[in-house]
Every structure is written in structure tokens, then in C-alpha cells.
Amino acid sequence: MNRDRSAPFVITIDGPAGSGKSTTAREVARRLGWHHLDSGALYRALTLAVRRMGIPEIEWHALTDDIFLQPEISIAPAGTRLEVLLDGSDPGPGLRDAETTRLASILAKNPRARARLTGVQRSALDFGSVVADGRDMGSVIFPDADLKVFLTASLEERARRRLLQDGRAVDGRSVRREAERIRHRDRTDATREVAPLRSPPGALEIDTTEVSFHAQVRRIVGAATEAAGTLTGQAPEK
Ligand code: CDP
Predict the structure, then answer these.
(1) Less Cβ around it within 10 Å: N or C end of the chain?
(2) CA-to-CA separations, 20 to 55, 107, 147, in angstroms, rounded
(3) Kindly report the CA angle at 186 between 180 and 188, in degrees rounded to 5?
(4) CA geometry: angle at 105 spanning 139 and 213, to 5°?
(5) How far is the CA of 1 from the centre of ligand 1 (A)?
(6) b/e for 49-67, b at 16 or more Cβ within 10 A?
(7) Which of 128, 52, 61, 63 is nearest to 95 (CA)?
(8) pTM for this entry
(9) CB atoms < 10 A from the CB of 218, how many?
(10) Ligand 1 atom at shortest distance from the alpha carbon of 108
């Protein structure tokens, strides 16, 4: 818990692929007037940079600091978003393509890649209070967060949402195929040695399979307001 009244507030939202972390975190941040940190976008930006260097995938697990320090990766406020910049610019559509998505969870197993991004993630607090989403926000990056949330949803529902989000067809076959991809990524994220995906102790766990988006956002904003009020005796500052 944040003891220092002048310190920024932190909400962490962790969860598996397609659980709705990013959209939820974005909306919670918008409602509170805080910044949203999408830590997955940082892993994707580093992945894109390594892809551009042309290093074969088989070598990724052993890549060292000098490789990860070559690209300049930073965040900058843009409204309530913290925009991710790769060598000073928007990384472009490659950030979200299927190959970057697949390779990001391979890169994320490398402890040096994770260490490379730790400082960038914590620098979000330089801009004020933050809603951070990812896999290890509450466990590793912001262990003293004021509120920790862990989102889950059934595998099928997560596959369906991911297809809808990407504007792809949502039929039985596509859902099964996407569910298989997500299952594979979940396994990689949950079984890696460093910062494996899991619900941090004390987290508010919400299964969003049958909860509406607005209801889940309301619940988190309510819990955040309560936590901030308990700490400061007043509503959270914007
Ligand atoms: O949006 P989605 O859940 O599909 O993925 P993302 O949040 O953009 O993250 C892409 C990948 O980066 C994940 O599959 C994780 O392997 C990795 N990641 C991580 O290890 N730790 C984080 N804090 C965020 C992402």
C-alpha cells in the first residue's frame, strides 16, 4: 500500500491473453483521469526491434543485455495513454501482428529482456498515478500497488473476444483455432521461470466471462476509490 500521500496511486491489472486487461485498464484510467500503462506493448516493441535485427528465433532465449539496450524504448503521455515509442517513434502496425504476438511470449521468457523493461515500466510513475496492465504488474513491477486486480475469463470467451477485437470471423472453427493459440501462450506465460503469470496475493479476482464490461470497470473504479479514500481520507486525486 502507498503510505506517502504525495506518491502517485497505482492500480495493477494482470491476467491471461484476451482477458480484457488492456481495454479495462484503459477505461479505468480514463474514468479516474490517470495514465494507462500497457506493459504488453513494451514487450511487443522490444520483440519488434529484435525481429528487425534479423536474429534467428532459436537464439532469442540467450540474447544478452547489449542486444536489448540497442533499441531506445520509452513511454510518453498522450492524453490518459502512455504511448510506447521505439527509437522515438510509434512502432506501427507490426506491434500487433500475429508474428510479434507469438514471438513476444518467447522473448518474455528471457530474464534480461524483462530486466531491460523494468525501469521503463516504473518510469510511468514520473507522470502521476497509473493503471498498469500486464502479467507481472502486481507481483514484480509494482508490488506495493494500492489495488491489485486479476482478470480471467473462459478460454472460449477470450478467443471470441480476440477475434472480434481483430475484426475476424467468429465461427466455431476460428474460435477453436484461436483458443488453441491462446492456450499455448497461456502455458508459456504461466510456466516460465521468471515472473510467471499468476494472481498476486491480495488481488481482487474478477471472472469476466459473464460480467459486462461496464460492470467490471465500475467494480474496479469503486475499489480504487475506496482504497484511495482509506489511504488519504479523500477521493483519489486526478
Ligand atoms: O494483449 P495480450 O494479452 O494478447 O498480450 P500483451 O499484453 O500485448 O502481451 C504480449 C506478450 O508479452 C504476452 O504474451 C507475454 O508473454 C508478454 N508480457 C509479459 O511477459 N509481461 C507483461 N507484463 C506483459 C506482457
Answers:
(1) C
(2) 32, 22, 17
(3) 105
(4) 65
(5) 25
(6) bbbeeeeeeeebeebeeeb
(7) 52
(8) 0.91
(9) 15
(10) 20
Helices within the chain (DSSP H only): 21-32, 39-52, 65-68, 98-107, 111-122, 155-165, 172-191, 213-232
pLDDT per residue over 8-57, tens digit each?
999 999 999 889 899 999 999 999 999 999 999 999 999 999 999 999 99
What number is the average pLDDT over the span 199-220? 94
- Out of 26, 37, 39, 131, mutate this one to test ligand 1's pocket (max ligand atoms within 8 Å of CB): namely 39
Distance of CA 156 from the midpoint of ligand 1 (Å): 19
DSSP 135-195: SSIIIII-TT-SEEEEEE--HHHHHHHHHHHTT----HHHHHHHHHHHHHHHHHHHH-SSS
pLDDT digits (tens, 9 = 90+) for 123-175: 999 999 999 999 999 999 999 999 999 999 999 999 999 999 888 999 999 99
Residue 19 Cα: closest atom of ligand 1: 3
How many Cβ atoms sit within 10 Å of the Cβ of residue 101?
17
What lies within 8 Å, CB to CB, of 39 at 6+ separation is: 117, 121, 132, 133, 134, 135, 137, 141
Q: Which residues pair with 36 in a beta bridge?
A: 81, 131
